[in-house]
Design goal:
The chain is α/β, with parallel strands linked by helices. Helix content is 22%, strand content 20%. The chain contains ten helices and 17 strands. Strands 8-9-7-10-11-12 form a six-stranded mixed β-sheet, sandwiched between helices. A four-stranded antiparallel β-sheet has the order 6-3-4-13, with no helix packed on it.
């Protein structure tokens, strides 16, 4: 509230400026985050307030919106557990909390009847919500291989994941996820249960296992150098590529790393021979894999490495290759992502009067509640302004239709008063 005070300018009149609106909080999915770990220690996010209005009709600056970044695939739930947004792709966003509107200065209330308004609106409080974030991890990389090929050992060596490890097939029955931190890179690796020949036809719960691979950006094909069934790495690779092709041909176009595991058990000579047998696109002409139609664009994105998850031989080089492929796949995704969904709840319009007790009532409606919340009810002029505004909104008619009795208690937002029909 301000009035112009200047020499030789009589009756300068009101010149209070408006306050700036507060910032809103947006939740936005980004491909540059892989986990929600940042919210464990810092769960609260708050946008800033707008600046105050000043005299000489100087309006306050509106605050900037706060953008809270979350990984792709984040599901946002309200306090009751209902899904309000599913942010699956880069750039998908959800308005989590709307900022309050700035209050109007007293210059806004100048009229022929009100020449010197001694009141101004208060700033509106912004929305406040408790939300729960869940991450349906769309793994950056998926470990694919035969049972007991060393996938669980590998993910436990490169991340904090601790899956069950044993020397018998199908130790892993559900996928395990691990967040890998490699130098400046962070990505998610999924340990997929072992595949067997005929998995694409449903053998060995094949469809149940293969569906976890569909949304992985990069495939890590794990070949056992010390396979108990005597299959060579080239034969294992042929079977794996065939099952992937039979289940979903597009999977063969994904960037992939071919990893020869257990080189500590097989020995360096066996590992060197296997590397020589596999060409740089991850296929072996001797194994007959040339018969599978592989997109030429995928050839440059295939790496072959020999590692030992136990002794960590070759892990650094393999993670370097994997990190590069993941970064490139994030920029040029090969995965058909699901469509983002957001639940829109339109603001209530109009005025509703509901009973709260024997002789107690509450007026509901955003416009009526805001008229009371932002007004300075300590000023008689402001009270008269609010009464006129509520009358224009139809509050008096709504109270009459609800049969509110003389002397009953009526609440609008934080305001409570006794109802007298002749005063409304």
């Amino acid at each position: 509230m301000s009035f112009r005070r200047e020499a030789h300018v009589p009756r300068g009149g009101p010149d209070g400026g408006d306050g700036g609106s507060g910032g809103s909080v947006w939740i936005e999915a980004t491909r540059n985050m892989a986990s929600l770990l940042a919210f464990r220690d810092h769960p609260h996010r708050r946008a800033t307030s707008g600046t105050h209005g000043q005299g000489q009709k100087r309006h306050g600056k509106a605050a900037d919106d706060l953008v809270v970044e979350v990984p792709e695939g984040t599901v946002v739930r309200d306090h009751e557990g209902n899904i309000v947004a599913d942010l699956v792709g880069h750039g998908d966003r959800y308005l989590a909390a709307r900022g309050g509107r700035g209050g109007r200065g007293n210059a806004r209330f100048l009229s022929n009847r009100r020449r010197a308004p001694h009141f101004a609106e208060q700033g509106e409080y912004g929305e406040e919500h408790w939300l729960r974030l869940e991450l349906k991890l769309m793994a950056d990389a998926a470990l694919v291989g035969f049972p007991n090929a060393g996938k669980s050992t590998l993910i436990s060596a490169i991340s904090a994941a601790r899956p069950k490890i044993a020397d018998y097939p199908f130790t892993t029955l559900e996928p395990h996820l691990g967040v890998v931190h490699y130098r400046d890179h962070e990505f998610v690796v999924a340990d997929i249960p072992g595949l067997i020949e005929g998995a694409a036809d449903g053998r060995g719960l094949g469809h149940r296992f293969l569906r976890h691979i569909e949304r992985a950006r990069v495939l890590v094909l794990l070949l056992d150098l010390a396979a108990t069934d005597g299959r060579t790495p080239a034969e294992q690779l042929e079977v794996l590529l065939h099952e992937l092709s039979a289940y979903r041909p597009q999977l063969l176009d994904r960037p992939r790393v071919v990893v020869l595991s257990k080189c500590d058990v097989a020995g360096p000579d066996v590992a060197a021979a296997a590397l020589a047998a596999l060409d740089r696109d991850g296929a072996s002409s001797d194994a007959g894999i040339d018969a599978i139609d592989i997109d030429d664009s995928a050839v440059d994105s295939v790496k072959v490495r020999a590692i030992s998850a136990v002794t960590h031989v070759g892990l650094d080089e393999m993670l370097g290759d994997l990190a590069q492929l993941v970064e490139r796949a994030r920029v040029e995704p090969h995965v058909d992502a699901p469509v983002a969904t957001t639940v829109l709840r339109p603001l209530e319009e109009g005025v509703v009067v509901v009973r709260e007790g024997e002789r107690a009532w509450r007026v509901q409606g955003r416009a009526a509640e805001r008229a009371v919340a932002v007004s300075d009810l300590t000023e008689p002029d402001a009270i008269q302004f609010v009464q006129d505004r509520l009358r224009r909104l139809g509050v008096d008619r709504a109270l009459v239709r609800a049969a509110v009795g003389e002397g009953d208690t009526v609440r609008i937002a934080e305001l409570e008063f006794e109802y007298h029909g002749d005063l409304m």
